[in-house]
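Protocol check, entry for the methods section draft. Step 1: assemble the input record (protein sequence plus ligand SMILES). Step 2: submit for complex structure prediction. Step 3: store the structure tokens unaltered in the notebook. Ligand used here: flavin-adenine dinucleotide. Step 1 record:
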Amino acid sequence: MPLPALSAAVRKKNLRVCIIGGGGTGAALAYDLSLRGIAVVLVEKGELTSGTTGRHHGQLHSGARYAWADRAIARECYAETLILRKIAPETIEYNGGFFIALDDDEAGLVPDFLSALAESGIPSHEVAREKALEAEPAMNPALKRAVWVPDGSFDAFRLPLSFFAAAARLGADIRPWCEVTGLEARGGRVVSATVLDRRAREPAEVRIEADCFVSAAGAWAGKVAALAGIDIPITPAPGTMVAFRGRFADMVVSRLRHPSDGDILVPQRGLSIVGSTQRVTDDPESLLPPRGEIERLRLDGAALVPALASAPVHAAWSAARPLAGRSGSDEGRSISRDFAVLDHGRLDGLAGFISVIGGKATVLRAMAEKAADAVCASLGLEAPCETKRYTLPSWREYYARRGREER
Ligand SMILES: Cc1cc2nc3c(=O)[nH]c(=O)nc-3n(C[C@H](O)[C@H](O)[C@H](O)COP(=O)(O)OP(=O)(O)OC[C@H]3O[C@@H](n4cnc5c(N)ncnc54)[C@H](O)[C@@H]3O)c2cc1C
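Step 3, stored output:
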């Protein structure tokens, strides 16, 4: 169903929410709250999607990767892929995926993997090796067994831009190049944010007042919470990805083993993206791939698709996962990929402030739904989520509208 244009008449009690962070999570939240009739102002310190959102593989996770150990996020991923395929078909390439076993140990994992997938509600089936190689001839011919799963890929920029386009159409005030540098509280409640607005030639400090502030600042959420004097459990965990020139497969190809480094190949347009690695950092800003990781990922990728051994590198980059939890000695690997909505009124005695952390780009809509539910609960508002109902406008609409406004 196409998105209706909401009139100002349905606005709920003149409430205003300020969202901090213009990645996928902030985009989906701006849309969700606008659809519930709440006025939204969103501030992003750089260009929209310039955080982790614009730098991931773009794998539409069926949840299969997490089925071994993390059933909650596995189920959520699959449910969300079905919704996104309905509301944002233009941004998705839905070709399916293969998990391939390359040795006897990996082949021995197939029965366990299939039952983990069944228990997570993710459709799957084993495909005879000849049939799998017929479907994706560039895969390693030495593969022993292959399992089909409903993976896909999506455009890391265009999916969030469709959410931004929808939010803007409903009246959301979206402000890129605006960094929150302070959060002010009065009487146990956050009441305003100090924002450095860099859109004009001379940066200006402005104050934004709102009834509720939501940090959707991804790997920066710890820094944003610290502005309000709150310590939240988040681990920024960078990973490296390498884009090789050439599209060697149409399906996502993953190594059939417990999640580890270099075990995914995602096709994106004419490129094949191999990832990833994992470490932890205190600072998610300006990350670069550490020495050696590009060649390591080439070797790992070539195990999946041998042609990658000699394919030219198009680009390599790093980005930080916003893992919801504190890291132990395992570089954050035991932290769930699930997300958490933290209502700091309930948890820390500071009302009007909520953080949404963790998750995956695939579950951006679900993260927004839970965060918007928390906003409504904290404002004493009854307004159900409606983001499953409407087809999102084209991603093109966002910049077309912004261009018109700037001219
Ligand atoms: C290596 C790697 C590969 C991945 N691959 C996939 C994948 O294939 N599929 C998938 O579904 N997920 C994947 N993910 C996970 C996914 O990328 C993230 O979960 C998702 O992008 C997080 O989105 P976000 O909007 O929460 O955070 P972000 O996109 O980081 O957005 C937060 C924004 O907040 C802004 N901000 C920070 N501080 C301030 C401030 N003070 N004021 C204003 N703005 C501020 C930042 O600039 C940033 O733009 C991957 C992650 C990594 C690291």
